[in-house]
Amino acid sequence: MKIKEGVVMTGLQLQMRDVLIAADQIWKDAGQELVVTEGTGGTHSAGSLHYYGYALDLRSRDFSLAELNDVVDKLNKALGSYYNVVVHNTHIHVEYDKAKYL
Asked: Options 3.90.45.10, 3.30.870.10, 3.30.1380.10, 3.30.1390.20; which CATH number does 2-101 get?
């Protein structure tokens, strides 16, 4: 697993550890190295869970569309309903839906 240079992980919540563990294995199984492209830093929409340490962005550009769909499906299954996995143009956004479960 790599953390992209400049990515801030300070303040990341414990629930996001499960994301990192699951994603690292899923990426390895797909023949790729997991790259975290955003943690608690960066600029996001107002109220974004990134600011509270409950969201991560993961690099997706190295996957074909079929591989991406497979990775997202596996990530959803591994994490369960507590997490939202959203595909954006440049990355996969994963968040712990703290409003529902805390």
From this structure: 3.30.1380.10
CA neighbor of 79 nearest in space, from 63, 101, 51? 101
Q: Strand order in 2-3's β-sheet?
A: 2-3, 35-38, 55-59, 91-96, 83-87
**Cα dihedral 86, 7, 82, 49 sign:** negative
Tell me how far CA of residue 69 lies from CA of 41, 55, 65, 72, 95, in angstroms: 27, 20, 6, 5, 18
49-76 residue pLDDT tens = 888 999 999 999 999 999 999 999 999 9
Average pLDDT of the chain, as a whole number: 92
Q: In whole angstroms, what is the distance from residue 74 CA to residue 90 CA? A: 19
- 39: which DSSP letter? S
